[in-house]
Amino acid sequence: MTPEDFTYLSELLREQTGISLSEDKSHILEARLIAVVRAFNLTGIPDLIALLKQGDAEAMEAFTETLAVNETMFFHDIVAFKHLEEMVFPFFLKNKKQEEAIRILCAGCSSGQEPYSIAMQVKDFLEKNPALKVEIIAIDISSAMLSKAEGGIYTQFDIQRGLPIKMLLKNFTKKDGAWHINDDIKQMVTFKKLNLLSDLKPLGKFDVIFCRYLIKHFDVILKPLILDKLADILNPDGLLFLGEDETALGLTDSFKSIVKSVPYLFQKVSE
Amino acid sequence: MKTFLVVEDSKIIRTIAAQALKDMGFATIEAGDGQTALDICKKELPDAILLDWFLPVKDGLTFMKEFRAIQGAEDTPVIFCSSKTDPEDIQKALDAGAAEYIMKPFDSEILKLKINLIDLEQE
């Protein structure tokens, strides 16, 4: 891949997804795009670039899907989910009107492990507090990942990463060697295809947003922009969970840290 | 340093698992069958156990029953590790007192993630 090719492709990726790639990742970009080149029966990356420049929608979708970040697991950092159960749900149970649902957004949901982890945690809480109403919306840029998420079928490898064994037995059914998430959990999550760079307002307002291990891949200029977009769709005092190695502090004034022991949990600053 | 007892009859799996645990900062003791493991526990209790199901002399379930009868071993976390992957079998291991369950084959990442799920504070 020539330096010019890399510049064009990395700019296009940034424009389409917000993901930033440094030049030392050139070989990764090339290795991933070879699969797209083959799928479209092209002879090489220059042909793919030509298709992308023509605005071919299918090639563009394959390009963004191949390069999207899909690293995920069940109950990633279990402590974050314990905070949901011990702190966040009781807070809203006390402060929400009876008919009002807690709305949770899972941004960048990949193949569904995170929104389903939230749903399993919600189910456990509801067993003790049936008055709570919860709505979970999960968005991702990739049609392929959303399709896997909606299917709710996972391999033995998937279900061994982060998922407590009791949660597995309670919420999954084994069929033909694969693990299918049960319908009651599946029905708690609504999946939508949406790019974080696009208009998020049609999703409505949320009380809690999970956007974990995503903004670290974004361009430094886009990070504050994305955080402000998330703040815009949070209710007053709404909460934002980022990844353990991510922060909103220093990037935007829209969020403040609220619990010292949970440095990746932020609250929207009231206007 | 916390001590993990690795009970596994396959020397290869036992060695790989013990090395992975050492890399995570645990001291390890190894046993190739259920009776040897019990004898070790009667002398000195480990902080946690990685336990295979199919073992010579005394299998994993039998080991669990006798292990829990040892004074002080009531709450020691045990991670079962087996090629049995049906929910009914996993439930049997949980009923016997397993804190977590690993389905074979597994890698060091899965082992680490499972350890994160059990109550085992590292010093």
Task: Describe the protein.
The complex is a heterodimer of chains A (271) and B (123). By secondary structure, chain A is α/β, with parallel strands linked by helices. Chain A has two domains: 3-67, Chemotaxis Receptor Methyltransferase Cher, domain 1, CATH 1.10.155; 78-268, 3-Layer(aba) Sandwich (Rossmann fold), CATH 3.40.50. Chain A is 44% helix and 18% strand. Chain A has helices spanning 3-17, 26-39, 45-53, 57-67, 78-95, 113-128, 143-151, 156-159, 165-171, 183-186, 222-232; strands spanning 102-107, 134-140, 153-154, 172-175, 178-181, 189-193, 206-210, 234-241, 255-257, 265-268. Chain A has a seven-stranded mixed beta sheet, with helices on both faces. A three-stranded antiparallel beta sheet of chain A has the order 3-5-4. In chain A, β4 and β5 (178-181) form a beta hairpin. In chain A, α2 (26-39) crosses α4 and α5 (78-95) packs across α6 (113-128). Chain B has a domain at 46-106: Rossmann fold, CATH 3.40.50. The N and C termini of chain B lie close together (6 Å). The interface between A and B is medium-sized, with 14 and 18 residues.
Radius of gyration based on Cα positions of chain B: 13 Å
Shape of chain A: globular
Proportion in helices of chain A: 40-55%
CATH architecture classification name of the domain at 46-106 in chain B: 3-Layer(aba) Sandwich
- Given helix and strand content, the structural type of chain A is alpha/beta
Task: Write down the overall mean pLDDT of chain B.
Answer: 94
